[in-house]
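The instructor's notes for this session suggest beginning with a concrete chain rather than abstract definitions. Hand out the sequence below and ask the class to guess, before any prediction is shown, which regions might be ordered.
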Amino acid sequence: MKQEKEPRDYLDDLPRGKAAAVKSCELQRIWNKDRRQVSAIIEDLRRSGEMICSCGNGYFLPETLQEVSDFYWNMYSRSMSILYTLKDTGKYLKDHGIDPRRKKRA
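After discussion, reveal the predicted structure:
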């Protein structure tokens, strides 16, 4: 019987450095998981304090503080873009009589 990996064991499959980043589809193959499962594993590891960066080329463990900084600013920019979209969407819902803070169907 094949034993399931411990969450931290997945770190062994992540390369060091942005230049060696591994795509999600490769991690799916290596870990025998689907895309959502790979994303959940990465998220769990990050939330447990592991520094896992990502870029257009995939996931990696940072080699330098510059790689961490680049990742930070990329994520910051993406999150701000999402927040601006949410703000505009919330205004639209309010203008149409729906409180966007309450999750219910229109």
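Then share the key points. The chain has a mean pLDDT of 93. The chain has one domain: 7-95.
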